[in-house]
Amino acid sequence: MTMFRSGIYRCRIAHRRSRPRVHALSYGAFYLLLDLDELDQLHRRLKWFSVNSFNMLSHFDRDHGGGSNQPLRAWVESNLTDAGINLGGGRIEILCLPRIFGYVFNPISVYYCYDTNDRIRAILYEVNNTFSERHTYLFEIDNEDADEKRLLKHDCPKRFYVSPFINVEGQYHFRIRRPGEKVYLHIHQTDDDGPLLDAWVRGDRIPLTDRNLITTLLRYPLLSLKVIGGIHWEALKLWIKGIGLRDRPAPPKQPVTTITVDGMNPRPNP
């Protein structure tokens, strides 16, 4: 049996809002960790998973990155080059929800970018909102942290409208571990008044096989509809709690916010 570098993570996703009303939620889900260099192989060898074509579960390049049919690796490498980061051909992985029977909504996808020594040199957080808008935060990883498996920490200003109940202001504080037998991501959002929102993804890895795809899908049926339906259901509960809607500004003109080790942004947003 072929063992892929790609895998499945059975996860628990949790959110907690601190103010002006406490609001929390938690639900089960599964993510795929896809090595972009394995996509063709996955397409050929898996029965229930396809790349850029319909299947029970599938991955489409246009669901990510620039939103086109451009190979996703080329899009990532183009943005890394703009940031002055050269992987030298190292691998790139994406942690994302797959299409299920042709439908997907990814609130956040994460790209892990490695050099040829298998050290993480960049991480990209790709954020989607329910208005069909997308923005990506690209972080260069310091050489001192690149080969460590400890918690990676990086921060940046919030630039993109996500929730109709939270203004586009404040800071994101990302905490993430290199994916292995487990996956871990924590996003802590603050503003001038202090802590505002926390979101976690925690999960355990199982091999990416047809059998595991089927059993995982049965464990989390209609996941994509559950995610988008859950977002609107939780929004209704926030509205009932008296949390008012915020105006939606235009997204940043540049689709990628880049934060390098020295703090400079080669592609600043206006």
Summary tags:
270 residues; 3-stranded mixed sheet; 11-stranded mixed sheet; alpha+beta
Give structural notes.
By secondary structure, the protein is an alpha+beta fold. It has one domain. Helix content is 19%, strand content 37%. The chain is built from five helices and 14 strands. It has an eleven-stranded mixed beta sheet with strand order 10-11-12-13-1-2-5-7-8-9-14. It has a three-stranded mixed beta sheet with strand order 3-4-6. A hairpin with a 5-residue loop joins strand 11 (171-176) and strand 12 (182-191). 33% of the residues are buried.
Quick recap of the structure?
The chain has about 270 residues and is an alpha+beta fold.
Estimated helix fraction: 10-25%
Chain-averaged pLDDT: 91
How big a fraction of the residues is strand?
35-45%
Q: How many independent structural domains?
A: 1
Shape: globular
Please outline the major beta sheet: 11 strands, mixed
Task: Output the number of helix runs.
Answer: 5
From the alpha carbons, calculate the radius of gyration and give it in angstroms: 18 Å
Q: Helix and strand succession?
A: EEHEEHEEEEEHEEEEHHE
Structural classification: alpha+beta
